[in-house]
Specification:
Elements (H helix, E strand, L loop, with lengths): L1 H19 L16 E2 L4 E10 L5 E9 L7 H4 L1 E7 L7 E7 L11 E10 L2 E9 L5 H5 L3 E7 L7 E2 L19 E9 L5 E8 L10 E8 L7 E2 L14 E9 L2 E8 L10 E7 L5 E10 L2 E3 L4 E3 L2 E10 L2 E10 L5 E7 L9
Antiparallel strand pairs: 1-22, 2-3, 3-4, 4-5, 6-7, 7-8, 8-9, 10-11, 11-12, 12-13, 14-15, 15-16, 16-17, 18-19, 20-21, 21-22
Length: 350
């Protein structure tokens, strides 16, 4: 009888584990509150990412650039700032700029963008894209590299690296990151090391370059060095630019990734957010429930149809996603970040 009970117990564990493998992310989205919208007068606001400080406050790191520069002005004018709130869903209030322009001798002299913030072992790590250039769109775009800053408190002081964390590889003309690197996404692995997924552009006709790829790199420490894996991920047949804006995390027994799906290559829903999964953070496949979000923003009292919903980031507490942060663009290039609360995850039966 004891053996039968043991077998039954093991079977239940295995069944629950199997059910936990599938996340229906879209079903976790709760209606947002208008106080979760963060905007700044005179600025485009983008790329929101949040961490919780030891002081119990929440800190929103985001990209901003002058409205007069237009939405594409991020590539020549963006800087990373921080806002704070007593709640993970806002309202957030501007505090200060944390990654501003600096001397032209630096690789990130002109622009800081794509922030993603993490707390590892009591320190805060702000991964981001930086660039320099002559102020012309393609010149600055093609000088994008991935960097990092470290601090003991979300308000700093932040110590920036003087060299890129993920640089280009121009030693081989067929390298997947020959021209530029950007959009870093980082998580701590089940083994205790650090995985990074990032966007890159290969060699090709200028000024755009070649195909857009995503790659994976690993490091023993959050400060690197990150060792790149060769093969790209998040690919779709012959689509030249299928995805971008990854966010990765480890939950249950798998790694998960939210990515912007440009034309519905993975969700079949047009511009949307797609969900990927992986057992090792190297080999990724579209999740069983690929659609994570459309461009519709559901509020408690209304629905907004956005032009763009991009840059997904999560607040994760005790291993579970609590809030989704996305950058939104409405008509006439009105842009803002918004916090979308999430339901407790439920298992999906296979």
């Amino acid at each position: 009888m004891r053996i039968l009970h043991l077998i039954f117990f093991v079977c239940c564990l295995l069944l629950n584990q199997a059910r936990a493998q599938d996340i229906d992310f879209q079903s976790l989205l709760k209606p947002a509150s208008k106080q979760g919208i963060f905007q700044q007068a005179g600025y485009h606001v983008w790329c929101g990412t949040v961490t919780k400080g030891a002081d119990k406050k929440y800190y929103l790191f985001y990209s901003r650039w002058p409205e007069k520069a237009g939405h594409l002005g991020w590539v020549t004018h963006s800087e990373v700032a921080v806002a704070s709130s007593k709640s993970a869903t806002g309202p957030f209030k501007f505090v200060k700029v944390v990654l501003a322009k600096r001397d032209k001798q630096h690789w990130d002299a002109d622009v800081t963008h794509n922030p993603t913030v993490h707390c590892f072992n009591g320190k805060y790590y702000l991964y981001y894209m930086g660039n320099y250039g002559n102020g012309e769109f393609w010149n600055n775009r093609n000088h994008q590299r991935i960097g990092m800053a470290v601090a003991k408190h979300p308000l700093g002081p932040w110590q920036r690296m003087n060299q890129p964390l993920i640089d280009v590889d121009t030693t081989h003309k067929d390298s997947y990151d020959f021209l530029m690197t950007s959009n870093p996404a980082v998580c701590k692995t089940a083994e205790g090391c650090y995985a990074m997924v990032y966007k890159s552009v290969s060699n090709g006709p200028m000024p755009f370059g070649g195909k857009v790829y995503h790659k994976v790199a690993f490091a023993d420490k959050p400060t690197g060095p990150f060792i790149k894996k060769r093969e790209p991920i998040f690919q779709k047949d012959t689509v030249r630019f299928a995805a971008e804006d990854p966010y990765i995390w480890y939950q249950g027994t798998k790694y998960w990734a939210l990515v912007k799906d440009f034309k519905g290559s993975f969700t079949k829903q047009g511009l949307s957010l797609a969900l990927f999964e992986s057992k090792d953070a190297i080999n990724w496949q579209v999740a069983k429930y690929p659609l994570a979000s459309t461009t519709r923003i559901q509020f408690t009292d209304t629905v907004w149809n956005a032009v763009k919903v991009e840059r997904p980031q999560l607040l994760i507490e005790k291993g579970v996603p609590k809030v989704l942060y996305v950058a939104v663009m409405m008509e006439h290039e009105e842009s803002f970040n918004i916090a979308i609360p999430l339901k407790a995850p439920t298992s999906k039966k296979k």
